Amino acid sequence: MKRFALVGNPNSGKTTLFNTLTGSTAHVGNWPGVTVDKKEGTYKKLEEPISIIDLPGIYSLSPYTPEEVISRNYILDEKPDCVINIVDADNLERNLYLTTQLLEMDVPVVVALNMMDVVRKKGDKLDVELLEKQIGIPVVAISAQAEENIDELMKRAYLSSLVSRKSKSLLAEGPLLHLVNDVQISFKALKVDHPLFHAIKLIENDEIEAKSHPDLIKIVDEFKNTFDDDVFGNDLEAVVADSRYRYITTNFSIAKTKKNQTFVETSSDRIDNVLTNKWLGIPIFLVILFMIFHLTFGENLFYLGGILNLSPSFEGTIFEGVFWNEGIMSPGVILFNLMDVLTSSLGDWIGGLTESLPLWVNSFISDGVLGGIFGVLSFVPEILVLFLFFSILEDSGYMARVAFILDRIFRKFGLSGRAFMPMIMGFGCSVPAMINTRTLGDENERIATIRVIPFFSCGAKLPILTAIAGAIVASSGFGNADLITYSMYLLGITVAIASIILFRNTTMKGDIPPFIMELPNYHRPQFKSLMVHLWDKLKHYIQKAFTIILASTIVIWFLSSFNFSYDFLLEEVDGMVVNLRMDESILASIGSLFAPIFAPLGFGSNLDRYVWVFVVAAVTGLIAKENVIATFGTLAACVAGGLVSTEDGIAEVALMITATGITVPALIAFIAFNMTTIPCFATVATAKGELGNKKFKWTLLFWLVTSYIVSMMIYMIGTWWWTSFIFLVALILVIIGIKIYNSKGKEKCQLVK
Ligand code: GDP
Ligand code: MG
User: Fold this and answer.
1) What spacing in Å lies between the alpha carbon of 278 and ligand 2's midpoint?
2) How large is the average pLDDT for residues 564-572?
3) Residue pLDDT, tens place only, 311-326
4) DSSP 77
5) Is 466 in the pocket of ligand 1 (CB under 6 A)?
6) Around 457, how many Cα atoms within 13 Å sit in the side-chain half-sphere?
7) Residue 55 contacts by C-beta under 8 Å, 6 or more apart in sequence?
8) Residue 11 Cα, ligand 1 centroid: separation in angstroms?
9) Using one digit for the tens of pLDDT, what is the confidence trace for 739-750?
10) What is the H or E stretch that residue 527 is in?
C-alpha cells in the first residue's frame, strides 16, 4: 500500500486533515504538541487505498525536540511515497520554513495550503497559482475543517507519488551553495539517500548528522578552508536559516496580500491582556475551574436555594427532586438524576421479571450484573458534562494560555510549562497523558511527571469522588458536594506539586529546559470536534463497563455471596433478600486479613462492622477505578437487603456508611487513598513501558507510600486536630534531611575537583 505522511507545524491542522481523510477520531486540540506518536489510517477514495500517517508537529527538521526526531526519521528511513506538507496559510512565511527543508529531500512533496477559510475571512488574498509556480511543487488550497478541496489534494498527491522528485535547494547562489554542492558530491559518492539534505544538515553542524558522519565533518572543514576566511562566520546554522528566510520573503511572500498592513490589536490580544495577566491569570483560572465543577456537580446552583425557598420539583412523581429540591440542580446533576430515574425503573422492571426465579439467580442478575453496571453508568452524564467543559477550554485555545501562565510557577517547582499538557490530559485518562510526556526535553523532568500523573484524578475516579461526596452530604448534612469534589481535585494537584518538589530537589535534579510555545488564536470551539471528544470518552467508558467492570462485579458478587464451603449466604427475611452472614463470605475472610493495615487510615479494622469492605473496594480499583463504586453497589444491595433499589452509587455508599459506622474524615481519607495510590491496570502497564523496569518498581513503591501517608494525615488530622503538630514536625525533619542530603552532594563534587 502506498504511504502518504502528513508533515507540518504544530497547530496547522494535520490531525483535523487526518481525521477527515481516514474517518478516524484522533484527538484534535487547539494546542501545539497534541500528537506525539505517529498515527496511521487509510484513505479509500482513490483507485487504490492509501495509508495516511499523521506525524508530530514540527517547525524544522533539526533535531531539537523528540517530535522533530520522530518526524525526520520517519521521512528519511521509512521513505513515504509522498509527503503532504500542511501549511497554515494564515501564517504563511513561518510555515514555509519547514517546506524549504522538505524540498531538500528526494521525496515527492505536495503543499496543502490549509486554513483558507481564515484567510478569506480576514479579507487577505492568496495567489495559489503564483505560489505553486514559485515553489515548484503542487500547492492545493484546502480547509481541513470545512473539508474543502480534500479530494483534489489527494488526487495531486497521488499523481506526485507516481514519479520521483529530485531535491532542490533554495539557498542563495554564492559560496554557501558552492560548499553545499561540494559536500553533496561526497555524499553521492558514498551512495547515501537524500544527499542534498544530509549535506546541508552536516554543514549546519546538526547533532545527529555530525554523529553519523564523523569522517565527513573533516571534509566539510577542508572545503570551508578553500573559501576566504570569514565568508561563513562560525554559526553556519544561522547563516543557513537566514538564507532560507530571505528566499521565502523575496519569492513566496509576493503570493499573499494582506488587507490590513498595519498592526492592529486583535480581540485575541485584548482578551489575552486580561486572561494571561501576571496577577489575574491564576485566580481567573481557579474561578473558571470552580464554575465548571459547580455547573457539573452543584445541587444548589449559584446558591439560590436559600433565597428562593423551593419545594421539591414534581412531588410524588418519579421525577421528584430531579430538577430542584432545596436548591436548583446544575445541568450535570439534572442529567445524573434523569439517568437515575431511568436505571431505577429498569431495575424494578427486571426485578419484577425475575421474581419467580430461584433466589440465587435473582440475586446474581440484580446484584451481580445490574448493580455494578448501573452504578458505573449512572456517572456517564456528569463525566460527559465535565469533559464537555474541558474540551471547550482546550478547543478555544484557553488551555494553551494556562500552560503559559503556569510556566512561571512550574519553574519554581522544577518543571517547565510543557509538563502542563500531560497533566491536564491526566484529568481524562493517565494512559495518553503518560505517553505525552515524551515531549518533555529533560529525562528527569519526564520521570517525575509520569509519577505524578495519576494524582490528576482521571475520569474513572470521578464516580468515587461523586458517590462518596454525595453520600457524605446525604448522611451527615456536611458541606456541598461540588465543594468536596473540587477540593479533592485540588488535593491531588497539591500532592503532585509536593512530590515534584521532593523529586527535583533530591534524586532527580536537572535543568529545566526553556518553554517556547506559540499561543494559538482563540476560536469558537467546533461543535463537531467537541462531539468527537465526548464520543471518544463515552465509547471507552461503556466498553469498560460491559467488559472488565462487569466481570469484576460478578467475581465480587460470587465471593461475597458464598463462603468457603460454597453455601449461598443470602436469605429472604420479611420479603427482603438480605445477606446477614456476609462476614462469613470468602471476600470477608480474605479482606479481613488486610484490614488491620488500613486502621490508621480510618477505613480498616477500626470500623464497627464489615471491616473489610473498603479495603476490598480499593483493591478492586486496581483493575479499573470504576470498580470501587461498582463493588459498593454489589455489596450494599446484600448488606441492606432488598434487591437493587436505587442504582445511583450515592445511595449504596450511604448504606455502607451506616452499616460500617465509618466517619467523615475516614471517608475523605478513603477518597484520597484511591486517588493517589497505584492507578488502574492499564496505567500501570503504560508506566512500565515508559519508565523501564528499575524506575518502574520505585514508582510503584512511591505510589503506595504516598497514598498511605496522605490518607493517614487526612484521617488523623480530621479526627484529632492536634496530630497536625506531629505531621508538621515530620515535615520539618524531611526538609532538614533534604538540605543535609544536598549539602553532602556538594561536598562530594568539591572533592572530585
Ligand atoms: P495539528 O496540531 O497540526 O494536528 O492541528 P489540529 O488538527 O489539532 O488543529 C489545530 C486547530 O486548528 C484545531 O482547533 C482545529 O479545529 C483548527 N483547524 C484545523 N483545520 C482548520 C481549518 O481548515 N480552518 C479553521 N478555521 N480551523 C482549522
Ligand atoms: Mg495533531
Assistant:
1) 29
2) 82
3) 788 888 888 888 888 7
4) I
5) no
6) 26
7) 5, 6, 7, 14, 35, 38, 70, 71, 74
8) 6
9) 888 887 655 555
10) helix 527-544
Q: What is the pLDDT of residues 52-91, one digit of tens each?
A: 998 888 888 887 777 788 888 889 888 999 999 999 998 8
14 lines ligand 1 (CB under 6 A): yes
Give strand pairing partners of 139.
Answer: 111
Q: How confident is the model at residue 647 (pLDDT cuts 50, 70, 90)?
A: low
Alpha carbon distance 452, 527 (integer Å): 32
Q: Name every residue whose Cβ is closer than 8 Å to that of residue 487 and which is 6 or more positions away in sequence.
A: none
Question: Which amino acid residue places its CA nearest to atom 25 of ligand 1?
Answer: 115
Ligand 2: distance of its center to the CA of 128 in Å? 25
Q: What are the pLDDT digits (tens) for 13-30?
A: 998 999 899 887 666 665
Do residues 320 and 314 lie in contact, with contact meaning Cβ atoms separated by under 8 Å? yes
Please choose, from the candidates 606, 629, 602, 609, the residue with its C-alpha nearest in 3D space to the C-alpha of residue 617: 629
Cβ 549 under 6 angstroms from ligand 1: no
Closest-CA residue to 673 (of 541, 501, 488): 488
Q: What is the pLDDT of residues 438-463, one digit of tens each?
A: 777 678 889 999 999 999 998 889 88
Does residue 429 carry a pLDDT above 90?
A: no
State the DSSP code for 193.
S
Name the pLDDT band for 367 (thresholds 50, 70, 90). confident
395 lines ligand 1 (CB under 6 A): yes
State how beta strands 39-43 and 50-54 pair.
antiparallel
Q: What is the DSSP letter of 20?
A: H
Rounded CA-CA distance 430/40 in Å is 22
The answer to whether residues 99 and 9 touch, using CB atoms and an 8 Å cutoff, is no
The identity of residue 119, as a single letter, is: V
First to last CA, the chain: 59
Ligand 1 near 13 CB (within 6 A): yes
Residue identifier of the C-alpha nearest atom 19 of ligand 1? 13
Q: Cα–Cα distance between 376 and 628 in angstroms, integer?
A: 9
pLDDT band (50, 70, 90) for residue 37: low
Map grid coordinates 511543487 to a residue. Answer: 137
Whether the Cβ atoms of residue 703 and residue 677 lie closer than 8 Å to each other: yes
Residue identifier of the C-alpha nearest atom 14 of ligand 1: 30
Ligand 1 midpoint to CA 52 (Å) = 17
Which strand (E) or helix (H) includes residue 7?
Answer: strand 2-8
Q: Counting beta carbons within 10 angstroms of the beta carbon of residue 59, is it exposed (0 to 12), middle (13 to 18) or buried (19 or more)?
A: buried
Grid cell of 86 as nine digits: 500542511
SS3 category, 54 = strand
Residue of 6, 7, 9, 16 best suited for mutating to test ligand 1, as the one with most atoms within 8 Å of CB: 16
Helices and strands in the chain, H and E counts: 34, 10
Using CA atoms, how far apart are residues 630 and 640, in angstroms rounded to an integer?
16
49: CB partners within 8 A, 6+ apart:
1, 42, 43
Which residue's CA is the closest to the ligand 1 atom numbered 28?
Answer: 145
Rounded Cα distance, 130 and 257, in Å: 12
Å from CA of 454 to ligand 2 middle: 24
Task: Using the structure block, give the residue that is written with the C-alpha cell 475571512.
Answer: 121
Measure Cα distances from 388 to 293, 528, 742 in Å.
Answer: 12, 12, 45
- What distances in angstroms separate CA 483 from CA 263, 431, 463, 486, one per listed residue? 45, 27, 15, 5
Rounded CA separation 605/601 (Å):
10
Task: Determine the pLDDT at residue 234.
Answer: 65
Helix axes 723-752, 693-719, angle to 10 degrees: 150
In order, the DSSP letters of 38-50 are -EEEEE-SSSS-E
In short, whether 34's Cβ falls inside 6 Å of ligand 1 is: yes
Whether the pLDDT of residue 751 is over 60: the answer is: no
Ligand nearest to C-alpha 37: 2
Nearest CA to ligand 1 atom 21: 145
Cell of 387: 469533559
